[in-house]
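Hi R.,

As promised, here are both runs. First protein below:
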Amino acid sequence: MSKKSKAYIQLPTNRDKKRHWVIRIISSIWFWLAITLALISSLLDVPAAYHKYFTPEREQIHNQKFITGVLLPKDLNPSLPVNIKLGINSQVTFSYSINQLIAGTELRSYVACDVMTHPEMPLQLGIKIMNNRIYVTDTITYLENDEVIGIIDKNAWFLFNDNVLDYFPSDNFLEVIDRQNHVALSLCFINSNTVLLQGYWNNRNNVNVAGNSFMPCISKEDPDYKKTAINEIIKIKPLRLSPFSKDGLLK
């Protein structure tokens, strides 16, 4: 008869026990660290979570910078072009048909700055009519430090409030104010077929201002370019302080 083989069970050594406890302690630390981080994150995001689940959808859209656009005047003549005027006393005007604006068009200045060295269009801004309202598409860059104040894409606003003093969308006008209380962009109708566009466009090599007049191509190679630009920008009268007629036209 053959002898039965004996089964041997290897008991854990003290070293194995220590290793096991170390693994358990590390796992426990990671577990509670993850729980703590999750709690901190949730506490920091309580307002956002509350807003997401308890705020009505319409109010959420409003808080996401959804705007209604500037309402077209009731007596706008669709058979005539709509004129975009750069500056209150400027002779620089762009004209578009209603169909062009409904399709959406890009407003570009006629002459580029620094054609021989750093070609750059002084002004590039989208204009579009939707649902009987006019909208713009524009990137606004702060004059003082070249930071982007915000991006406006028709009825969607991406405004960075840390860099903006205030902004004022309404049926009659659109206005963005920078940290220095200067008008960075404003848009309104001054008669039934004319839009007044004012503000400044801070490009890579040049600054361009539409205020009392249109002053393009203020070169950044000039050490006093900010002073020159601001002297024109401060002439822009804020629309929020201006009277409008009952038809929504600037008086």
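And here is the second one, sequence first, then its structure tokens:
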Amino acid sequence: MTWERWALLLTLNEVIKMKHIGATKNAIMIIISSSMDIQKNPYSKASVNKIIELLKQYHGITVKRRWVFYCLHDLEEEGLIARKPRYKNIAPGRIKQMSSMIVFTLKGAKYLIKKKVIGAMQLMKRILDWMKNQDKRFPTNPVLTDAGRVEMDPGDARRFFDLAARVLKPI
């Protein structure tokens, strides 16, 4: 299977088949994407408390911590994000849990592109660079794609981005 065919297998139909993604989950996806520095570190380390604060400030949504954890779990189950727990040794024998590192999967980046989120194409390019082994900074967690690592021909990558540029051209 060519890279182009594999990349296009995840179409809008697959995004439509997902569980209901409500307003809170959409807002959380936007908050996570806006809290990323795609050029420097394309992942978010926003804590649940920070997500709650930003939901209320920018989206007018008031939720409790437990609901944010449910939403993050649902987004992870849908394959839109991946989380990696982080820990810090603060003293011998004492470990402190820190906020998880949240990254978007290829499916999550396509979802953001469908929703026309600013920076989603740049995030998609970063993920594809990681898949081609050109970006060593992107998290090396194999859950970012369902199929694992896929070698991509540069010509296929160029055709894929040309296709995405035509599809996402402003009206």
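A quick note on the second one: The radius of gyration is 17 Å. Let me know what you think.

Best,
J.
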